[in-house]
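Can anyone check this?
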Amino acid sequence: MSFPKGFMIGAATAAHQVEGNNTNSDYWAQEQMEFSSFAEPSGDACDHYNRYEEDIRLMSEAGLTAYRFSIEWARIEPKPGVYDEKEIEHYRKVLLCCRENGIEPIVTMHHFSSPKWLIAEGGWEAEATVGKFAAYCRYVVEKLGDLFTYVCTINEANMGIQIAAISKMYMKMMQQKCTESVEGRVQVGLNLENPLMERMKKQAAENMKVFGTPQPQVFVGPRTEEGDLLVMRAHQAAKKAMKEVKPGLQVGLTLSLHDIQAVEGGEQEALREWDEEFLHYLPYISDDDFFGVQNYSRTIMGPEGSLPVPEGNETTQMGYEFYPKGLEHVIRTVHEKLPIPLIVTENGVAAADDSRRIAYIEEALRGVERCVSDGIPVKGYCYWSLLDNFEWQKGFSMTFGLIAVNRATQERTPKESLRFLGNYAKNEV
């Protein structure tokens, strides 16, 4: 079995996690705080900002055909209404480098980090953010739209709702003096340790100094139902603005999706969870050009809610269950309700043992192959991630990458998993 001609196989990154020195962003500001939730600051990260040519060449030499990466809003618009032409030219060079190396760029306009000024003006619960985001997206397409076809407006648009749920679960467990970790139940690097409550009080004072509010509405934070709807309207406004500039642009968004399964008595909880994670977004994304599937593991639901990883089952560095077959399940479940083209924009594993990464990729891709064989319109697969990078609040300790990065020298060392994925792209597996 093999993928059809034109099927994209590649890898993904996010600007803040790999570029380094994203000094105008909310994430950078939060990392520098004395009482920061971050294990360490991002600093130079992987210096991908300066080394993108080497990284893209390594992808191309391995045989990969797609690169999903984000354009950093905080670089493009460092101050409200002020656009930086130098940064536009930087991303033009990145896009041209992709084209020159036979790599299809899949651009993401917002991948978690936002301009610091946007958060100071109300962030992702403020009505004005809808128009500001659309204006930024329009500007980028006006300047660079001739160089890419696929664009994701917002990465994991449902992350705020997931974090709100995990925060509620964490607080309940603290009240019950439960010691079980819940960090592995959300597909992003979070730090939730016991001194959290005390640290939050100290953070509030720092937030006032940095953002002008004790509770800045960053993208990766607990979201209200109103904020959840606002994100959808920002997506729709951005799509409209970009298509007015380039009507043929293929526009979608991505959601963080677990393979939700139920044990006996947990069926209603599983349905509720899937509605919250996916179904309630359908009215806002059904007429998109494609949808970005992002899956890493499964969630097992019981009568009282989500259950821990079954005892004895393998877990990843992130605390997720090692469960690559979840991707096929999610693709099939999504397709039942959303029969538009799909791209797997993220799927991967944080593991020190690269042989486990290869095993994960192989099983995940076999599942994608079966979906394609059954007529589901999956157009591509992007492994997360290209590089061992900055996993948000967890710092650099989580190794998702197909390429290892020496943090002292920034030297790149391709792993066997990069060769394996490249061979898949060349139909040599």
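Reply from J.R.: I decoded it. The longest helix spans residues 225-245.
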